[in-house]
Write a structure and sequence with these properties.
By secondary structure, the chain is of the alpha/beta class. It has 18 helices and 20 strands. The chain folds into three domains: 249 residues, Rossmann fold (3-Layer(aba) Sandwich); 118 residues, Rossmann fold (3-Layer(aba) Sandwich), CATH 3.40.50.40; 105 residues, Serine Threonine Protein Phosphatase 5, Tetratricopeptide repeat (Alpha Horseshoe), CATH 1.25.40.20. Bound molecules: asparagine. GO terms for molecular function: asparaginase activity.
Length: 536
């Protein structure tokens, strides 16, 4: 597409900068609250009242309306755009406000479903999503959404603030602006939580302060990105990508209504645990244990017996640590005894992730008790640390960097490009083998912005496309001419390649459709496209 030509505040034509599109989903929370006789309450009209008057959210360009979907209905949203970011683009955004707006202490599986479905029905219209949400249950919501969203290919960033955006001193502007810029710039296809200049994997987070601006931590997983004065520093080796050839899906209504959470304490009575485990229709319990996963066995093993009985009745019991750092394991005898009684070791899951993961698995159709316990002990969305496997880096390839004046990274990518073009699947696999260098190569691009997936699409190599997709290559990355791999694959008329890319969630943007003469699908209001550079 032609990049959007905007007008500056004085009506002067601006340099042509591309726009990315982000949908803000406002659920409530302190960020939009104002004082009332009942204390702080959320108020509507966030775009007009809080964002429009602030130059960092509004470059004063001519107003533009955009389409979105709400509960299956097509609606029109007012939009604003940021001034140019450090990544030479504007972020255009509109807001969908939930009704009623919530203090996040009242969110539940219904609210999570509403958020997830809103992302789903607007998925093809935006580059990324920012969910504004109260901080009290933010870590629970980020965890829940991460499980509910399968094969997510675009960023979903949850944020909020400790003080209202209307307060003189607040963290709201930094948190929201940082989230908008990241969601509009980087293909980080995860449910994330952004707070205090830091982007976390959502299902690793926990709220650690009721008042400090540094309110969240991710004790067992390094941040996915940090915002500094130099820009956004993304830790790409940590970023997870979909590795299945499948469309983005949402699981609705996870079952947290039949899951309980209990913190073990010295002197806890077996009867107390037993009565929780006998709550009618209870299906799961998150047991917060001491240290590395220990609980008192009770006099004559009575507490262990209560647990064993509950497991025999089909209740899934998951062991997580009360400690913020570290993990549970059968190192000590009490932990081993719990394991023998049928308790699942949740390794380094947070309570928030354990509870919502179990709720999710209980909502998935046709999972047996052993399917659920098996999945609780393994990472499905990066929520727990997996045993690390050794990785190695591939040598720099066959090209002599001094001869062709390429950097080592460019030389390696060039070698990959040739292997792709020649359809050399084995060579491609070998080059992508090292975990770190493999990820790097998947998002690297040539001088024309083509990633390995673009090259494979042009070379009509379905085997290589499949390999790249299952290693996490993004179908949404566009080259310098704004073309997706799908657009290029359609040009080669290779049906298998087109189908693979479509099955992996690839879609044409409006201008690509016009150029390719493709028929218009159901969702017709995609924005004009713009490059989403793979290195970002
Ligand atoms: N009570 C508020 C909420 O969670 C707290 C906040 O957003 N800072 O909605």
């Amino acid at each position: 597409m032609a990049p959007v030509l905007g007008h500056g505040p004085n009506g002067d034509p601006e340099t042509q900068l591309v726009e990315s599109r982000v949908l803000i989903i406002m659920t409530g929370g302190t960020i939009c609250m104002q004082h009332s006789p009942d204390g702080l309450v959320p108020v509507t009209g966030f775009l007009k009242e809080a964002m429009a008057p602030r130059p960092s959210f509004n470059d004063a360009s001519a107003p533009v309306q955009m389409h979105a979907y709400k509960n299956g209905e097509k609606i029109i949203l007012d939009s604003l755009r940021t001034p140019p970011t450090a990544y030479s683009r504007h972020v255009r955004y509109g807001i969908l406000e939930f009704s009623p707006l919530l203090d996040s202490s009242s969110i539940s599986s219904i609210g999570w479903t509403e958020i997830a479905l809103t992302v789903k029905e607007n998925y093809h219209l935006f580059d990324g999503f920012v969910v504004l949400h109260g901080t009290d249950s933010l870590a629970y919501s980020a965890s829940a959404l991460s499980f509910m969203m399968t094969d997510l290919g675009k960023p979903v960033i949850l944020t909020g603030s400790q003080a209202s955006i209307f307060a003189l001193q607040s963290d709201a502007v930094d948190n929201l602006l940082g989230s908008l810029i990241i969601a509009g710039t980087f293909v980080i296809p995860e449910v994330c939580l952004f707070f205090h200049h830091t982007l976390f994997r959502g299902n690793r987070t926990t709220k650690v302060s009721a008042s400090a601006f540094e309110a969240f931590d991710s004790p067992n997983c390094a941040p996915l990105a940090k915002v500094t004065s130099l820009g956004v520093d993304v830790n790409w080796t940590l970023v997870r990508r979909p590795t299945r050839i499948a469309e983005f899906q949402v699981t609705k209504y996870i079952d947290t209504a039949h899951v309980a959470c209990l913190r073990i304490f010295p002197g806890i009575k077996p009867e107390m645990l037993d009565s929780v485990l006998r709550v009618p229709d209870l299906r799961g319990l998150i047991l917060e244990t001491f240290g590395m996963g220990n609980a008192p066995g009770g006099v004559d093993g009575s507490l262990t017996r209560v647990i064993k009985d509950a497991v025999e009745r089909g209740i899934v019991i998951v062991n997580v640590s009360q400690c913020t750092n570290g993990f549970v394991s059968p190192l000590y005898a009490p932990g081993t005894i719990l394991g023998r009684a049928g308790v699942v070791f949740g390794h380094d899951l947070t309570t928030e992730a354990a509870l919502t993961k179990l709720g999710y698995l209980l909502a998935v159709q046709n999972l047996s008790y052993s399917d659920i316990t098996a999945q609780m002990a393994h990472s499905i969305r990066g929520e727990m640390t997996e045993m690390t496997t050794p990785s190695f880096s591939h040598p720099d390839g066959t090209l002599d960097p001094t001869l062709v004046k390429l950097t080592p990274a460019e030389a390696t990518f060039a070698a990959l490009g040739y292997a792709v073009q020649r359809g050399e699947l084995r060579n491609v696999c070998e080059m992508l083998e090292g975990k770190e260098s493999g990820h790097q190569l998947l998002k690297q691009a040539d001088y024309a912005g083509n990633t390995a997936l673009h090259l494979a699409a042009m070379s009509a190599s379905p085997d290589i496309i499949k390999e790249l997709l299952t290693r996490g290559a993004s179908v949404h990355t566009r080259n310098s001419a704004n073309n997706t791999p799908l657009f290029l694959a359609r040009r080669t008329a290779n049906r298998e390649c087109v189908e693979l890319l479509e099955n992996a969630g690839g879609h044409l943007w409006v201008d690509e459709r016009a150029r390719s003469g493709a028929s218009t699908p159901k969702l017709v209001d995609e924005p004009p496209s713009r490059p989403m550079s793979p290195g970002q």
